[in-house]
Fold Ribokinase.
Amino acid sequence: MAIWNLGSINADMVYALPHLPAPGETLAALDLQQFLGGKGANMSVAAARAGSHVCHIGAVGADGAWAVDRLLEYGVDTRHIAEINTPTGHAIIAVDRQAENQIILFPGANRAVSSEQLGQALTQADSGDILVLQNETNMQPEAAKMGRDLGLRVCYAAAPFDAAAVQAVLPFLDVLFLNEVEAQQLQQATGKTPMELGISDVIITLGAKGARHFNAETGETVDIPAHAVTAVDTTGAGDTFTGYVLSGLDRSLPMPQAMALAARAAALMVTRPGTADVIPDLKEVQEASF
């Protein structure tokens, strides 16, 4: 089994600030670090570190070879990442002393994946494999439909949130990931509760309160608690959670068990500054004492 990820690849420029800037305010940064990031890359690294075979579908510019090398180093299959004549995506991330963040995204090459590239990749997938998408690339509805037609388990992380983008892929989804605010926005846009969306599994992350699973087939709702830790940087925690859940499903874990493992991974992640480069591996997650 494998996880196929049509996902973004970014250079994350992380600036430590005394507080998040107000409109019109100029602040001097206390520190600057560069990491591999992008919601797609983060999820690929998390799922690979959790023990799954992950094939990343994406694009970088000529300035992004280092990012592809880094993904390969972390165990991700990079054969379906194209180098194109568009700058690599990047993010400017401000993190304050309370570990809250503010992010500006430049999509770049992430929005230039070709239909030929997508088709060549997904035709190599096997029925029952997992396909995951986020709202940081183009070709989302096309990929979701292709995944459904090929018998893949289609999953969508609805961030950065856009109601129209979510509704375009809803008919093809098996699993939907939302945070608490996104879930409220989607319900306002559709007039439907998580149980009424027509999706087998909806997972809503609740920050320090944990996560909630809605099982449309059984009508059951299960809460998975978070672990109490001292956070230093919340960037990438949700992506780590999602990647670990997907890996758990890929390895045939029941959803509550996959989510519990993912909650441990996310708790470790927020104790570390950075994004994809500091996502914990499965051994670290299993051995962590909370």
User: Anything to note?
Assistant: The chain has nine helices and 13 strands. Residues 255-269 form the longest helix (15 residues). The first strand starts at residue 3 and ends at 6. The domain at 3-19+31-281 is CATH 3.40.1190.20 (UDP-N-acetylmuramoyl-L-alanine:D-glutamate ligase).
